[in-house]
Specification:
Structural class: alpha/beta
Radius of gyration: 22 Å
Number of helices: 14
Distance between the termini: 66 Å
Strand content: 15-25%
Shape: globular
Largest sheet: 9 strands, mixed
């Protein structure tokens, strides 16, 4: 499989993002492995500044496709269909790639034919400055949670084979749904070892704001998870143990995080209403009571 630049198209959805879209494009132009095409899909921008900036980018060699506002899934699909390359890299209009993303992603594809998508660790900026380390994996790993960021590189033929992103997914979790669909398709065509790989470096810069779509989707998390489970019911049925144990692992990790925080700051038990309430009425059947006993025991020992 070639790593020639002509094998890569970068697709960037944009809607009224004049303040960020140039940064996104500049991050693509700064890649150590250059893509031959950059496609911006303007998803119905009405902001005059954005329209002007997109015109300037079009004059500078970026292909800009305008469409009515239909959401990020439709914009990504338009860009994927408009490309002709082996690989398509997706980057939201307010995020950025670090210089080695395309090069490192293509290397992973070339090393393993079972890799169907590649992303990397995230460096978040804006409201939250942090490093986020998604895990990637096969179908089992993706049943408990999404393990791949929206910014990624795909094999274009596979994306087209599954029909792209589900444009009805307007409320969130569209990336998770898409990755499950890709992994399911790979299983169906006889590639059960197919997986999504994660570069263990922060090669994606992810902008965080209070109004980010992934933050808003958390308000509907249970509703959206029900949709995911129902839509991919066969996969959940086939990998039921992995799905349940994956969710339980997440619960245990978060309970352990809270417990260790309280041990470090025991004053939280007295000052924080939720912590105090938990100790008075610990949850049952999920390790909550055991955590409360451990906390109370450790606080009594430390006070002696």
């Amino acid at each position: 499989m070639s790593d020639d630049a002509s094998d890569i198209t970068v697709v960037i959805p944009c809607c009224n993002q004049a303040d960020y879209i140039v940064e996104a494009v500049d991050s693509v132009r700064a890649q150590t492995l250059q893509a031959s095409n950059i496609i911006i899909v303007d998803d119905g921008s009405h902001d005059k500044k954005t329209i002007r900036v997109l015109d300037e980018l079009a004059n500078g060699g970026v292909r800009v496709i305008h469409q009515s506002n239909r959401g990020v899934c439709a914009a990504r699909n338009t860009g994927i269909r408009a490309s002709t390359s082996t690989f398509v890299a997706l980057l939201d209009g307010d995020d950025r790639f670090r210089p080695q993303f395309l090069e490192k992603a293509v290397e992973l594809f070339n090393q393993d034919d079972d890799v169907i998508a590649v992303s990397s660790w995230l460096r978040t900026f804006g409201v939250l400055e942090s490093t986020v380390k998604p895990l990637g994996g096969g179908i089992s790993a993706f049943l408990a949670r999404n393990n791949c960021p929206a910014a990624c590189m795909l094999r274009r033929n596979l994306a087209l084979a599954v029909g792209g992103y589900d444009e009805e997914m307007q409320e969130g979790f569209e990336d998770w749904d898409f990755y499950l669909t890709l992994l399911e398709y790979a299983e169906q065509i006889g590639s059960p070892s197919s997986h999504i790989d994660i570069i263990p470096q922060t090669l994606i810069e992810y902008r965080t704001t209070p109004n980010s779509s992934n933050i808003a989707s958390m308000n509907k998390r249970l509703e959206l998870m029900r949709l995911i489970i129902c839509k991919h019911a066969q996969s959940y049925h086939m990998h039921l143990c992995d799905a349940i144990l994956g969710v339980e692992t997440i619960s245990m990790q978060r309970l352990e995080l809270w417990e260790s925080t309280v041990r470090t700051h025991p004053e939280l038990l007295a000052k924080k209403t939720l912590s105090r309430s938990f100790m008075q009425e610990p949850s049952y059947g999920d390790g909550g009571m055991a955590a409360a006993v451990r906390l109370r025991s450790s606080s009594e020992v430390s006070s002696q």
